[in-house]
Automatic annotation (TrEMBL):
This is PAN2-PAN3 deadenylation complex subunit PAN3. Residues 563-700 form the Pan3 C-terminal knob domain. PANTHER family: DEADENYLATION COMPLEX SUBUNIT PAN3, PAN2-PAN3 DEADENYLATION COMPLEX SUBUNIT PAN3. GO terms for biological process: mRNA processing; nuclear-transcribed mRNA poly(A) tail shortening. Residues 611-720 are annotated as: Knob domain. Residues 1-28, 113-214 are annotated as: Disordered. Regulatory subunit of the poly(A)-nuclease (PAN) deadenylation complex, one of two cytoplasmic mRNA deadenylases involved in mRNA turnover. PAN specifically shortens poly(A) tails of RNA and the activity is stimulated by poly(A)-binding protein PAB1. PAN deadenylation is followed by rapid degradation of the shortened mRNA tails by the CCR4-NOT complex. Deadenylated mRNAs are then degraded by two alternative mechanisms, namely exosome-mediated 3'-5' exonucleolytic degradation, or deadenlyation-dependent mRNA decaping and subsequent 5'-3' exonucleolytic degradation by XRN1. InterPro entries: Kinase-like_dom_sf (IPR011009), PAN3 (IPR030844), Pan3_CK (IPR041332).
Length: 720
C-alpha cells in the first residue's frame, strides 16, 4: 500500500507530480480496506517525537510519503480514482445506504484546503488529534493486535445513525464535540459479519437497531472513522435524500443504472452466435457482415434453378400448371418402379404462382375412380422427411392418358442413387465411394422418422427406392414419389392388410441401407446374409444389427415388426441426430440474423429513390430539387457519391450502411451536407432527415392514392 519513503525526486515539482497517491480520498479508501481486513494493520503511528499537526484533509495514519510532512505549498490532490471511491463507499457503508455519488461531500473532501470549515473537531486541530495521544504501540499491534483493538468495546460510544429528518449536522457536531481525545486503544476492532448485512426492508436509517435485525456494536467505530476521515467527514448515514432508493448495500449499484431499459439501437448490428473462428481484421471481408458465401451461393443456385425456364418448350400447358420444365436428366424409359414410364417436371401453378414438382405416369388408364381418391390420404402426411403431396389428376394434354402427381418442388434435388452411385455425383467419376457411418445413421434416423409419420397415418410408403428418395440439402433426405403406388396398385393393395404392406416398408428400408453400406446396386442385392457379414468390416456391429433386424421377417410366433420398436432401439442415434440438426438450426439462425436489417435498408432505399431526382410531381418539375427534398438529395450525395481529396469515388460500404441505418433509426447525430457547387451547406440531424423522407414519401403516396393509376406503386406502398 505504501510507497517506499526513500524514494528520491529530482525537483520539488517532480516530486509533486510523481507523488504516489497522496490523495486523501484514496488514502481513506485504503484505510477502509485495511479496516475491513482484520489481518491488516489498521493504524500506523508516527515514529518520531514531533507533535503531529494533522493537516486538513490529510489522513493522520498515512504512512505514504508526505505523512510526516505537510504538503508543499500549492500541492493539489488529484481527484480520487473511481475504484477508491468504490472502496470508500463499501468501507463506509455498513448500513448499505446509498450515498450520493455526485453529492458535494465528495467534492469537499477532495479539496482539503478549501474554505469549507470542517465540522469534525477531532480532525481540525491538535486539541483533538495529537501524537501524544496515549497507548498505541505498533509492536502490540503486530504481536497481539486483536487484544489491542477489541478489549474496550464496551466503553465505546454508542453509535446513533442520523435519521433523514433529524438535524444531522448538529448531531454530528455534538457527537464529535463530546468525543474524547483520540485514543486508538478505545477502538474496537472491526469484525466484519456479512451475515448481518442482510437488512431486509427494515434496514433504513429510521429503523431501530433492533428492528433492523443487526447489532450496531459492529459499527461502534465512530471515533476511528472520524479520526481517519478527511476534513469533511463522509457519513453515509447522513445521506437522506435518496427518496425511493431502498437502503440496502446492493441498491447503491442498482442506482447507477436506469431502472427502465433504454430503447435498442436499431442502427447497430448485434451478431448472434455461433460465430466463425476468430478472424484477423485483414482476413475479414464484406461478406463477413452478411450471410456466409457458401450459403448465399447455395441459395442463389437454388433460386436460379427455380426460375430456370426452357424457351420454345415443346411441353404442353396443363389446366392448372404452366411453364413445365423437365427435371429428368436421363432420357431412359424406366418402368421398374411404378410399372409405367415416369417423367418429372417443374411447373408453375396458375392458381398461386408457386413452383411444384409434377410426376407424370405415361399411358396410365384410370379404371377405378376410387383409386385416385386413395392418394388424397397423403395430404395429411406433413413430415420433414416426406415430400409433401398436393394432388393427383389425369390429363390428356401430353397426347396420351397420363396420371399426374403434384408434390412440393425442391430445387436442385438429387436422388440418393444419383448422389451415391452416379459417376458424375458422389463418385466424381471414380465410382461410388464409401458412405461414412454417421451419414448412414443420419439416413436411418430420417427414413425412420418418415416411416413413423406414414405408418401412424395408416398408410404405407410402398416405394423406398433409392431413385425415389431425394437429397434436398446436405445429408437431408425426403421420401418422394409417395402416393403413386397407392393409385397404381390400388386393386391389389385392397386385398392385402395394411400391416403387411407396412412390414414390406421395413424390409425395403433394410435393403436400402444395406445397398448403400455395401455400395451394391439395389437390383444386385441377392446374397443378403453374405452382404450382412461384410458390414462389420467397415461399420459398427450396431449398424449391422439394425439392418439385419429390418430385413429379416418376424419369426414364427413373433409379433409383426413395427417402426416404433425400431426407433426405440436406435434411440441414442436419434439423440445424436437431433443434436446435429439443432446445431445446424443455430447456425442458420445466426446466418439469418446477419441479414436482419437488410430488408429494412432496402425499403428505406426504395423510399429515398422514389423522392430524389424525381422529374415531375404535381406539375412541379423541380419538386425534388427544392424544399425539404433538397437536403435529401444532398444526403444521397453524401452517402453514395462521396469523393476523396483527389476526386476519386469513395466506395466504402460501411459508410453507406452506417448512414442508412442512422437515417432509419432517426439518430440524433448531425451530418453536414454540402451542395455540389459548395455554395450551400446544411447541418442537419438524421432525425430531421427521417422526417423529411417520411413527409416527401407520404406526399407521393397521397397523390398515388388519389390517382390510383399505378398498381405497381400501390403494391409497393404497404411494404414500405
Ligand atoms: N420433388 C422434387 N423436387 C425437385 N426435384 C425432384 C423432385 N422429385 C424428383 N426430383 C428430381 O427429378 C429427377 C428425376 O427423378 P426420377 O424419380 O425420375 O429419377 P430417375 O433417376 O430418373 O428415376 P427413373 O429411372 O425411375 O426415371 C431427379 O434428379 C430428382 O432429383
Amino acid at each position: 500500500m505504501a510507497e517506499p519513503q526513500s524514494r528520491q525526486y529530482a525537483t520539488e515539482e517532480e516530486a509533486q507530480d510523481l507523488q504516489p497517491v497522496a490523495d486523501p480520498a484514496s488514502r481513506v479508501a485504503e484505510t477502509g480496506t485495511s479496516i475491513l481486513n482484520p489481518a491488516a494493520p489498521a493504524f500506523v503511528p508516527p515514529q518520531h517525537g514531533l507533535p503531529l499537526q494533522a493537516p486538513q484533509g490529510f489522513v493522520a495514519h498515512d504512512p505514504a510519503p508526505g505523512f510526516n510532512q505537510l504538503p508543499a505549498p500549492g500541492f493539489r490532490y488529484p481527484p480520487p480514482p473511481p475504484l477508491a471511491i468504490l472502496l470508500l463507499l463499501l468501507a463506509y457503508n455498513p448500513l448499505g445506504e446509498a450515498p450520493t455519488y455526485l453529492g458535494c461531500r465528495f467534492t469537499n473532501r477532495l479539496q482539503p484546503h478549501s474554505s469549507v470549515p470542517s465540522p469534525t473537531p477531532l480532525l481540525s486541530g491538535k486539541k483533538t488529534l495529537n501524537v501524544e495521544s496515549p497507548s498505541f504501540t505498533p509492536s502490540t499491534l503486530q504481536s497481539n493486535k486483536k487484544s489491542t483493538f477489541s478489549t474496550q468495546a464496551a466503553s465505546a460510544a454508542p453509535f446513533t445513525p442520523r435519521g433523514p429528518g433529524g438535524n444531522s449536522a448538529s448531531q454530528t457536531s455534538q457527537q464529535n464535540m463530546d468525543a474524547p481525545v483520540f485514543n486508538p486503544s478505545n477502538i474496537r476492532e472491526f469484525q466484519p459479519q456479512p451475515q448481518n448485512y442482510d437488512l431486509g426492508s427494515t434496514g433504513s436509517p429510521n429503523a431501530s437497531t433492533h428492528d433492523a435485525g443487526y447489532s450496531l456494536d459492529h459499527f461502534n467505530m465512530a471515533p476511528l472513522t472520524q479520526a481517519l476521515a478527511p476534513p469533511v467527514p463522509f457519513n453515509p448515514y447522513a445521506v437522506n435524500d435518496h427518496s425511493g432508493i431502498p437502503n440496502q448495500g446492493a441498491t447503491y449499484f442498482q442506482s447507477q443504472f436506469p431502472s427502465a431499459l433504454s430503447p435498442p439501437q436499431y442502427h447497430l448490428y448485434a451478431p448472434i452466435g455461433p460465430y466463425r473462428e476468430d478472424l484477423m481484421p485483414y482476413q475479414r471481408v464484406t461478406h463477413d457482415f452478411f450471410m456466409s458465401e457458401r450459403l448465399r451461393d447455395e441459395l442463389q443456385k437454388k433460386s436460379h434453378a427455380t426460375l430456370q425456364t426452357m424457351p420454345n418448350s415443346p411441353l404442353p400447358q396443363l389446366e392448372k400448371y404452366h411453364s413445365l420444365f423437365p427435371l429428368d436428366t436421363s432420357n431412359r424409359k424406366n418402368t421398374a418402379v411404378f410399372g409405367y414410364t415416369s417423367w418429372v417436371y417443374k411447373a408453375v401453378s396458375s392458381k398461386d404462382g408457386k413452383y411444384y414438382c409434377l410426376r407424370r405416369l405415361e399411358g396410365f388408364r384410370l379404371t377405378n375412380e376410387h383409386a385416385i381418391h386413395a392418394a388424397r390420404e397423403w395430404k395429411k402426411v406433413l413430415n420433414a422427411n416426406v415430400v409433401t403431396f398436393h394432388e393427383a389428376f389425369t390429363t390428356r394434354v401430353f397426347g396420351d392418358s397420363s396420371l399426374i402427381f403434384c408434390h412440393d418442388y425442391h430445387p436442385l434435388a438429387l436422388t440418393l442413387y444419383e448422389h451415391h452411385f452416379s459417376p458424375q455425383q458422389g463418385g466424381r467419376g471414380r465410382g461410388p465411394t464409401v458412405v461414412p457411418e454417421n451419414i448412414l445413421w443420419s439416413y436411418i434416423c430420417q427414413i425412420s422418422n418418415a416411416l413413423r409419420a406414414i405408418h401412424h397415418a395408416k398408410l404405407a410408403a410402398r416405394c423406398l427406392d433409392m431413385t425415389k428418395i431425394i437429397i434436398t440439402d446436405k445429408n437431408r433426405i425426403r421420401l418422394g414419389a409417395t402416393s403413386i403406388l397407392d393409385v397404381v396398385q390400388f386393386e391389389s393393395s385392397q386385398q392385402r392388410p395394411l400391416a403387411d404392406i407396412q412390414q414390406d416398408d421395413l424390409i425395403q428400408f433394410g435393403r436400402l441401407i444395406l445397398s448403400l453400406a455395401t455400395l451394391t446396386q439395389p437390383h444386385n442385392l441377392n446374397n443378403i446374409p453374405q452382404l450382412l457379414d461384410t458390414l462389420p468390416m467397415k461399420y459398427s456391429a450396431g449398424l449391422r444389427d439394425a439392418v439385419s433386424w429390418l430385413i429379416s421377417p418376424p419369426r414364427p410366433g413373433e409379433n409383426a415388426k413395427h417402426i416404433d420398436t425400431f426407433l426405440a432401439n436406435i434411440s441414442q442415434h436419434l439423440v445424436t441426430f437431433a443434436d446435429v440438426a439443432l446445431r445446424a438450426d443455430d447456425s442458420l439462425t445466426s446466418e439469418l440474423s446477419r441479414e436482419l436489417e437488410n430488408g429494412r435498408l432496402v425499403r428505406l432505399l426504395c423510399k429515398l429513390n422514389t423522392i430524389t431526382e424525381r422529374g415531375d410531381h404535381a406539375g412541379d418539375s423541380a419538386w425534388s430539387e427544392h424544399g425539404e427534398r433538397y437536403p435529401l438529395k444532398l444526403f444521397r450525395d453524401y452517402v453514395f457519391h462521396q469523393v476523396d481529396e483527389s476526386g476519386r469515388p469513395v466506395l466504402e460500404l460501411g459508410h453507406m450502411i452506417r448512414c442508412l441505418n442512422k437515417l432509419d433509426a432517426a439518430a440524433d447525430d448531425r451530418v453536414t451536407l454540402v451542395s455540389r457547387d459548395e455554395q450551400t451547406v446544411f447541418v442537419v440531424s438524421y432525425k430531421d432527415l427521417k422526417v423529411m423522407v417520411d413527409r416527401a414519401f407520404n406526399e407521393l403516396v397521397k397523390r398515388t392514392k388519389q390517382a390510383q393509376t399505378s398498381p405497381a406503386a400501390v403494391n409497393m406502398m404497404p411494404g414500405l
